[in-house]
Design a protein that fits this description.
The protein is mostly beta strands and 297 residues long. The protein has 2 domains: 12-138, Immunoglobulin-like (Sandwich); 144-288, Immunoglobulin-like. Helices cover 13% and strands 58% of the residues. Strands 9, 10, 11, 12, 13, 14, 15 and 16 form an 8-stranded mixed beta sheet that branches.
């Protein structure tokens, strides 16, 4: 057998296999973690198949080795053939933030992939096929969201129509397009509106936009504190939900929960005295109504 292998080795000159970077995709990304998949093409210029043993890789961030791993048994390279092999790496953003204090949500993370394909061929011995690739990936930040104010348009004891003006700021270092905005809005402890919008608008880095959210609620079904709000007193609110965006890195879901204080104001087209009178009447009716019942990583 040894003599046969020796004759085979003398029959041709061995060409060292090569590896080329073909791309990287992000099949999963959230505010908590990200999955990177690197596509590496390995070529065999020889007339015999070559078994690929292990793939050893590491991710370097800020000149420091952050994560490493091994992918066993990558298959066989057929003679005069090539094969695209995927290297998948899972990263947790909390681990990155704990290791690199200068990298926070909204940052772009520069990385270096260093991978080595190991092959072991009888007669010729063990070979290493190295490849390096550098790039960047995002660490998404939840948008800064606030309710600037709420205007009511049509005030009634049984039904009140209003509009909430929601400020949304893109804290990421990349442009994103808002696809959907899902929300629940609470005043004091009362859920007064929930729904989904599809504004389909683009937001550049640090850009601010204002969403207009119309809604209807029934004051008589809520706590008495709602009438203090209608009279113009400041109210605590909670706005929670999810923003789904398109980014250069694929779709991202950004959950949010924000609390603060806002005011419920009359719309400019509403007569002030009429509004005041209606609010007083509705408040009195609410008091007499027996059915009135007093939210990274």
């Amino acid at each position: 057998m040894a003599s046969i292998l020796k004759k085979i080795g003398e029959a041709f000159t061995f060409g060292k296999p090569t590896a080329d970077f073909k791309g990287m995709k992000i099949p999963h990304i959230s505010t908590k973690d990200i999955k990177l998949v690197f596509h590496i093409e390995v070529k065999n210029p020889n007339p015999i198949p070559i078994p690929l043993c292990d793939i050893v890789y590491k991710i370097v961030i800020n000149d420091r080795e952050f994560v490493k791993g091994t992918s066993p048994d990558a298959g066989t390279l057929h003679s005069h053939d090539s094969k695209v092999i995927d290297i998948g790496v899972d990263l947790v953003f909390k681990d990155i933030r704990d290791t690199f204090t200068d990298l926070q949500p909204g940052s772009m993370v520069n990385y270096l992939l260093r991978a080595t394909f190991l092959v072991d061929i009888p007669v010729f011995g063990r070979f290493e096929i190295p490849i390096d690739h550098d790039g960047e990936f995002p660490m998404p930040a939840i948008p800064d969201i606030d309710v600037d104010e709420i205007d009511w348009v049509d005030l009634s004891f049984t039904e009140t129509k209003a509009v909430a003006y929601v400020k949304l700021e893109n804290l990421n270092k990349f442009t994103m397009k808002i696809k959907t905005f899902e929300y629940k809005l609470y005043l004091t402890d009362d859920l007064i509106s929930e729904g989904m919008m599809d504004p389909s608008m683009g937001l550049a880095e640090k850009e601010v936009t204002r969403l207009t959210v119309p809604f209807t609620f029934r004051p008589k079904d809520m706590g008495r504190a709602i009438w203090d709000i209608i009279r113009g007193h400041e109210s605590g609110y909670t706005l929670e939900g999810k923003v789904t965006v398109e980014s250069p890195f694929g779709p991202i879901e950004l959950p949010f929960k924000k609390g603060g204080a806002t005011t419920l104001k009359k719309a400019r087209s509403t007569d002030e005295e009429t509004v005041k009178e209606e609010a007083e009447k509705s408040a009195a009716a609410a008091a007499a109504d027996v059915d009135q019942t007093d939210y990274y990583a």
